[in-house]
Design brief:
- This protein has 19 helices and two strands.
- It has 333 residues and is an all-alpha fold.
- A hairpin with a 2-residue loop joins β1 and β2.
- α3 crosses α5, α9 crosses α10 and α12 runs antiparallel to α13.
- The two termini are 48 Å apart.
């Protein structure tokens, strides 16, 4: 303990010490009304550790560049010296996404679109943004497969890849984005988690974070699509967001939305003929108990969630099933 207390303090650095990190905060300070002109903006940021560490001169130069970026991309307007966030800027700030992410999404959502619009189009769109995390590095052994996949699906993408001869690093990063999109696509096509981790060499934590980040970015894209009047995109993004959230194909969304029903149980119910909430509402509990993975308590929970009736016969079936399970447990112990 003495070694830690008496040790030389480590140097710390402000997290605002980059132009990209400053942009969201400049936008938020204007959108929230903390700063309505440049002087108020300087005053607001002069109280930060960033200003203390780097000095007011450096701070102003970085803030001016960040503000110029926001104005050039239609997030902030200046009228008689007054700074005001546009609807685009305000929504970007409310969604807590990087302004650079919002600009890329705007570019994609307001364009004519790729030659062939698919789920991959939107999955790569979010993978192309700086907010997508974690970034997946393509391993050398994967490059040939990723380049083949890119050549086959390039017409589905909103963004074109860099020329590998002119920008080898950028091209490799683009292949990493393709890898992220493929992982998410495998997830929504109901590939088992072990299979995804083995096929793409990702860890469980990485897969979890990709799913969470993907769901958030698809929601943000949906909101921006509404803002830009692209209703057809908004509808597709809404469905895709739910598929990423649950990791299922579209036909399972109703079932997977039920509490206690994940992607595996949803597929088992669907395969057993229960393909909608109405099917579950009409089904006797004893029929649900025949589905693998559906125990007595879960069967009753399903019926309660869908508003189905539970008969005396159903309750007897549940009691019998619970008794059988208890007896098996007693026997095994």
């Amino acid at each position: 303990m003495r070694a830690y207390v008496e040790a030389e303090p480590e140097r710390i650095w402000s997290k605002l010490a980059s132009e990209r990190a400053v942009k969201p905060h400049v936008l938020a300070s204007i959108a929230a009304g903390y700063a309505s002109n440049e002087e108020e903006l300087w005053d607001f940021f002069s109280k930060t550790f960033y200003a203390h560490q780097y000095g007011l001169g450096t701070m102003r130069a970085v803030l001016r560049r960040a503000l110029a970026y926001l104005e050039e991309n239609g997030m902030v307007v200046r009228e008689d010296g007054i700074l005001r966030a546009t609807a685009f800027g305000r929504r970007t700030s409310e969604l807590y996404i990087d302004p650079e992410t919002a600009v890329l999404m705007k570019e994609a959502l307001t364009s004519e679109g790729p030659g062939s619009l698919t789920d991959l189009s939107f999955l790569h769109m979010i993978a192309h943004t700086p907010d997508m995390w974690p970034r997946l590095r393509p391993y050398r052994r994967e490059l040939e497969d990723l380049m083949g996949f890119l050549a086959e699906h390039e017409e589905e993408l909103f963004f074109r890849p860099p020329d590998p001869e002119l920008d080898a690093v950028g091209f490799e990063e683009f292949l990493g984005e393709i890898k992220v999109a493929r992982v998410l696509d495998a997830w929504i096509e109901e590939e088992p988690e072990d299979s995804i981790m083995g096929l793409f060499d990702v860890q469980p934590g990485d897969l979890y974070r990709l799913v969470e980040t993907g769901r958030w970015l698809l929601y943000a894209a949906q909101e921006l699509a509404v803002l830009f009047g692209r209703r057809e995109y908004a509808v597709r993004l809404s469905v895709l967001m739910k598929r990423v959230e649950h990791g299922v194909r579209e036909e399972l969304l109703q079932l997977a939305s039920l509490r206690g029903i994940g992607r595996v149980r949803a597929r088992l119910l669907y395969s057993a003929g229960f393909r909608s909430l109405e099917d579950l509402r009409r089904a006797p509990v004893r029929e649900l108990l025949k589905v693998p993975g559906i125990g007595p308590r879960l069967a009753l929970s399903i019926k309660e969630q869908v508003g189905g009736e539970i008969s005396e016969e159903d309750l007897e079936a549940v009691k019998k099933e619970e008794w059988v399970q208890k007896s098996l447990l007693d026997y095994s112990s």
